[in-house]
């Protein structure tokens, strides 16, 4: 492993993911731009490099076992290891979604990307993360997945797609389980909420910019060795589970 910090950001070709890559790259890190679409991935890498980031493309479909395994091999060969993983790739499954009208196929598709995809990528990258001196895993979640907030009177979560909301609750639980299993390692694992950010996931209706949405991931990716693990955070502080 070189002294340069190596990070992989999934779904990094646009929106929050791109801004996470840009923010970490600005620190002098080497950034793997994980994305399915080749043209968008190449465009993002070119743009990052033009801005001075040491970026390289990682063909990555988080729903495909063989593809994710190949991505891990590419990172090992190209960068020599991995220090930070930001699981950012996600889909909503479209709108509107209510529990009584939800197509089970939509739930499967959303969970496949937003939850199983995180498991698939994390487990594939884990051997490299274990070998890092300062490994970090950041799971990009959302406050809409908070059961505490969902059940608090007078808090309106808005018309959030049901499958997407449930997938973020699932992801939060998964984050906790990873922390429990890897508690005897030096890997810091946290969930982060970007806030209601204007991206194509919500038709650009969000009130925050992608740069603002990326800030929490950058903070959690750069935590010191004695930083928190097993938490859920946004820019304001701790988010209740």
TrEMBL record:
Coiled-coil segments: none
Gene3D superfamilies linked: NAD(P)-binding Rossmann-like Domain (3.40.50.720)
Record Pfam families: adh_short
Xref: InterPro entries: NAD(P)-bd_dom_sf, SDR_fam
Superkingdom of source: Bacteria
Keywords on record: NADP, Oxidoreductase
GO molecular function: oxidoreductase activity
Family: Belongs to the short-chain dehydrogenases/reductases (SDR) family.
Protein name: SDR family NAD(P)-dependent oxidoreductase
Source organism of this protein record: Nocardia aurantiaca
